[in-house]
Amino acid sequence: MSLCVVNFNGAAFLRPTLDAALKNRRSFGEILFIDNGSDDDSLAIAGEYDEVVTVALGENRGAAAVRNAAIRRAASDLILLLDSDVRLGDGCADALAAALGERGAAIAMPRVLYEADPDTVQYDGADWHFMGLQIIEHPDTPSRRDGGGVREIGSVITACCLIDRRKVGTEPFDEDFFIYLEDHDFGVRARLRGFEILSVPGARCYHSEGTPGLSIRAIGSYSSLRVFCLIRNRWQFMAKNYQGRTLLVLAPLLMLYEAAQLVIVIRNGWFREWARAAGWMARNARRVLRRRREVQRTRRCRDGDLMEAGEIPFRQELTSSPLQRRALAALNRVVTTYWRYAGRFV
Q1: Residue 240 burial (C-beta neighbours within 10 Å; 0-12, 13-18, 19+)
Q2: Strands 197-207 and 107-114
Q3: Cα dist. 117→113, 114, 124, 129, 271 in Å?
Q4: Which residue in 122, 208, 310, 322 has the fewest CB atoms around it within 10 Å?
Q5: Could you say which of 216, 241, 270 is where a domain stops?
Q6: CATH number, domain at 114?
Q7: Interatomic CA distance for residues 63 and 225, integer angstroms
Q8: pLDDT digits over 245-289, tens only?
Q9: Same domain, 148 and 12
Q10: Which structural domain, as residue segments, surrounds residue 225?
């Protein structure tokens, strides 16, 4: 198994991450450190570890690109992708590998706990909400000692995950996503091709604050890049992965959602990011449609077999006022009622 630590300006977290990796050294044939054009002390810190092989990309090409670079460079077909602010728990990699081997799955992810509050789950799985978003499983819940059993999930969060390169390929991440929802797109495409994704709660890791300048936990608000990528990448995700029938059935809901999103965008001063996302989609329509044809050609199941119902997984930061919360509640009632009757046709 290859361990690939992917990094962008993660110097503040690197020593605990690499120390924990070396503590689990027997699980890995190699430990790679793939740096995505950091301008902090990341490369110098990684250089302190003789058993870690450093690969410097020289520029920030985004989360999707650095993971593809790691997958291409790894010597083993079993590759543990690890963000540089994630500390492996003892036996985490072995537990993931055991589950992957027993089930013949393509991807497995552990239970991710907060570094600052290790008794609380940040997430331990993800699913595909029919509105194009990612449902986070068990967020901010107490972590039971046994963690529950291995289960199949509909998507993946790649802060820490084990992949089988023989199944997912050498460049499985869409680099047009740059960052945000690139892992959701990767996971759903794997599921559409008939591969299994596992949540292994018995495997544990610990997540720090996230990417400097981007993580909401670190800066307390949405960055311009985050807003742009979240809007654009959801549109990319749906344009590529949804069947034509699904888009037709969901069209009224999708138009309602887009109208609500535009209101939020304007109220929060994000219209420039929205317009930039729309412009990107218009300029790159042919490329997105070409990738759509690839997805539709290789799919082995219907959207409805994988999509999950439920309320829209909206972050609370976007509904700060009582009026906004009431509007979201009304939107959720419409969305869940519509899916109850129309979802059978997807």
Answers
A1: buried
A2: parallel
A3: 7, 5, 15, 28, 36
A4: 322
A5: 216
A6: 3.90.550.10
A7: 13
A8: 999 999 999 999 999 899 889 988 999 999 999 999 999 999 999
A9: yes
A10: 220-345
